[in-house]
């Protein structure tokens, strides 16, 4: 069963409501049934009208509500972009967007349902907080964290096809804007986000067996990003590789590369979805492999990079 079809996300939203006046505005996905059943007055289903969904959310936030939006990532980020920018961010409304079906998770539904540009879009909006949790525990903590701050937030939540079970060792306190170092190493830094953190740990274990010490950073907050951790990686390791289930343009890789470029030292290689539409039809894992985002492909890429140094 998909992670967001389980009650944990809605339980986290309910927890916000213990101290805050929370309402949920959902898209016609059924994901908010648990909340709506318990709190019918606080639940609004906008149907498949993402622009309207964000407009409703902004209006409710204007009355002092903390508004949680539940929607599909490709549609809310692209169809609703103008409303997110103008109605929510420009007016500093307290709207928290929980975006589901991220990356290539909606594999069989094709390009229209792939969400490979959303991080890039959201991080260009002034004042927007962008969070990409790596596992189930981080999802719950991220919802609590964004609920505790004012202003618009975008949470990119995987779990439809991706494994979001708790990661062993990913148990450090969650703080917005502060990454977590999951493995120490001084040869290469692998900075991953979201679903790719699990892949990064598999890569680290395989390369450690070959005597290659990799530093693994879970960059769960893309904006504001952990500038200090990136600078340390650029100064202390030979190479930074970024890993994300998103276009290589404008996402985690772009954010890291911007900091390293301004620093004037270090090298960044971005691994993600190539600059193309993923038109293949197949299972989720097959699409990741076709984009070079499975563990074996990442291991091969890093081995090649290290041989060239």
Structural commentary:
It is a single chain. With 309 residues, the chain is of the alpha/beta class. The protein folds into two domains: 3-156, Rossmann fold (3-Layer(aba) Sandwich), CATH 3.40.50.970; 180-307, 3-Layer(aba) Sandwich (Rossmann fold). Helix content is 38%, strand content 19%. The chain is built from twelve helices and twelve strands. It has helices spanning 8-16, 33-38, 50-62, 73-78, 81-89, 118-123, 136-147, 196-208, 227-236, 252-263, 284-290, 295-307, and strands at 22-26, 43-45, 66-72, 95-100, 129-131, 153-156, 180-183, 188-192, 214-218, 221-223, 239-247, 268-273. The strands form two sheets. The chain has a seven-stranded mixed beta sheet with strand order 2-1-3-4-6-5-10, sandwiched between helices. A five-stranded mixed beta sheet has the order 7-9-8-11-12, with helices on both faces. α1 packs parallel to α7. The radius of gyration is 19 Å and the shape is globular. Mean pLDDT is 92; it is low at 1-5.
